[in-house]
Amino acid sequence: MKQQMVSGRTSRTMTLIVVALLSLVFSACAAKSSAPAADEKFVFGLVLVGPINDGGWSQAHYDAAKYVESKIPGSQMVYVDKVNPADRPNVKVEQVVDELIAKGAKLIVTTSDDFKDGTRESAKAHPDVTFVHASGDDVITGKAPANLGNLMGRMEYGKMIAGCAAALQSATGNISFIGPLVNDETRRLADSAYLGAKYCWNKRGGDPAALKFNVTWIGFWFNIPGVTLDPTKVVNDFFTAGSDVVISGIDTPEAIVEAGKAQAAGKAVFAIPYDFKDACAKGEAACLGVPYFNWIPAYKKLVNDAKSGTWKQEFTMSSSMPLWLNWPEASICGPVRSTSKTERHSSRMVKSLPTSKYGTCPSYSKVCSAKASASNHDSDNQAPIFRSLVFSHHKGVKCTSAFSKSISRLDQFVPTKTSRLRSLLGKFMASSARMVLVKVP
User: Fold this and answer.
1) How far is 440 from 224, CA to CA, in rounded Å?
2) Looking at residue 328, what is its pLDDT?
3) Mean pLDDT, to the nearest integer, of 54-77?
4) What is the pLDDT of residue 420?
5) What's this model's pTM, rounded to 2 decimal places?
6) Which pLDDT score, from 0 to 100, does residue 277 have?
7) Closest by alpha carbon to 214, among 262, 264, 251, 174?
8) How far apart are CA 432 and CA 391, in angstroms?
9) For residue 150, which of 114, 111, 204, 92 has the smallest C-alpha distance?
10) Distance of alpha carbon 189 from alpha carbon 215, whole angstroms
11) For 295-341, how does the pLDDT look when each residue is reduced to its tens digit (9 = 90+)?
């Protein structure tokens, strides 16, 4: 009898042990199934004001996002483009954001100043999603909720150099600037172009009274028929009125397209497009170069930070010290040099532009011809240093333009004593003159 009781107790004990083990197994399986799958995508979204192939602002954002998607494992980009009154009348930013979140987006970048209010309201409505507005200033003004940041590249130097190149190329001193709508940012950039033109016109020996800088604002970032001025007409009116160089401040490439047509018809006119690194392709012979945005380093950092849960709210504006590097994952802005023949101004630039207490920069020909071993290097370790405005050298681009020579001997800054950085700077750097921005009367 006692033996039977022991045997029964043992059997029950074994049963309990088996049940407990099975419970642990099922619990483990349940826990495993609730964790994110190893192949689960991190989805980030873009809200674009223009089409993805606009040859300007929106395409620069889209191309950078596609690049980052290809480089960060497990990431996926979704987007809605042409979010503007002409293409999507009565569509609000909040509606577009909801569409992207429905597709799984955990990070959303909105890419127009016009999206400021909609981005803020969307961020409030979705506190578990990270938002970044390019550009905007809600972080500075204190209006931003905790999950909203601001991002912009400091393009003032790019526009200053564009103005300088225009002044070096112009045979008449009659330069025009086609601007979008009027706000603080667009005024700064027009001012920068004017100051660059004024400085280099005077240094080349031009009559100060002969310099004309005409500005026309079309009313939006690009053409909206019936709402804005037609940028094609504005550019051609500039040429008809005697301008021989037009600097673009709008999202789309009408300036370089029309300059290319005019030059093909025998007119000695030029243009400097904006935003997109390949914009010169619309009119190579008439292009003096293009100050453009490279959003790759910023987007790469944003996606990595949001994906890892380390994103922190900040107002990101590139520093005031530009560097010229062939390093696409490190520089938020840059100019592409032109292939037009404007070499006659080069010796004048070498003599006229200032040097600094650190000495003159390397000769521009050496900087351009140095086949940068870092050009395809993953620059994660250097991104915090070079996140600011940087002008990149691109392979295959000739170093013969006024745009090139306008930066060959501007002030040089050495921000660190790090030997590696000094070595890089020694090969690739030729930085910019300090300038004070003022409003054009």
Assistant:
1) 27
2) 55
3) 96
4) 35
5) 0.70
6) 87
7) 174
8) 10
9) 111
10) 12
11) 998 999 999 999 999 999 999 986 434 444 434 555 555 555 555 44
